[in-house]
Amino acid sequence: MSEAETTSSEATAHQLPPWATAAQTDINDEALAALETYKKRDPSKVVVRFKAVGNAPIMKQNFYKITASNRFQAVIQFLRKELGWKSGDPLVCFSRWVFSFCTDGHLIVNYSTTAAWG
Q1: CB 3.0–4.6 Å: which of 2, 79, 80, 112 could bond 53 by disulfide?
Q2: Which residues contact 100 (CB under 8 A, 6 or more apart)?
Q3: Contact at 8 Å (CB) between 28 and 87?
Q4: Per its record, what are the GO molecular function terms (predicted)?
C-alpha cells in the first residue's frame, strides 16, 4: 500500500465530525465499549420446567436450559414452538417464582389454554 492509501485509511477509521470535541470522543469510546460488552453472550443458563395445567397438552420433555439473560417473552415463544401453536392460539403462562427461583434453581412455568387461576 502506498503512503497516501495508508494515511487515507487511518483517517477514515478515526475520522471525527467537525463538531466533535475531545470530551465527546471519550464519551463515544465509553459508549462503544459498553455496546461491545452488551453484545457478548451471557454463558449462564437457567433450567426452565414446563407444567401443563387444565386441558393443555403435556410435553414429552419438560426441562430445558435457556440463557439467563433472555426475556420471559423468549420462553413463551419457545413454548409455542415446542407445542406447535401459532401466535393467535390461546396460551396463558403462570410462574409462581416471578422474581425468584425455587430451591433447586429451576424456573417452573405452568401453561394452559385458559386462565387457570384467579
Answers
A1: 112
A2: none
A3: no
A4: Atg8-family ligase activity
C-alpha cell at 102: 425455587
Per the document, the length of the chain is 118
Edge-to-edge strand ranges of the sheet holding 63-67: 63-67, 45-52, 106-112, 92-94
* Residue 90 Cα distances to 11, 46, 49, 57, 96, angstroms: 56, 26, 20, 12, 20
Q: How far apart are CA 32 and CA 116, in angstroms?
A: 46
The dihedral region occupied by 82, where left means phi > 0, alpha psi between -120 and 50, and beta the remainder, is alpha
Quick check: 109 pLDDT over 50?
Answer: yes
- What is the distance between the alpha carbons of residues 51 and 43, in angstroms, rounded to a whole number? 26
The pTM (predicted TM-score) of the whole model is 0.57
At 52, which helix (H) or strand (E)?
A: strand 45-52
Instruction: List pLDDT tens digits, range 49-95.
Output: 899 988 889 999 989 998 887 888 888 899 999 999 888 888 888 88
Nearest by Cα to 93 from 75, 68, 81: 75
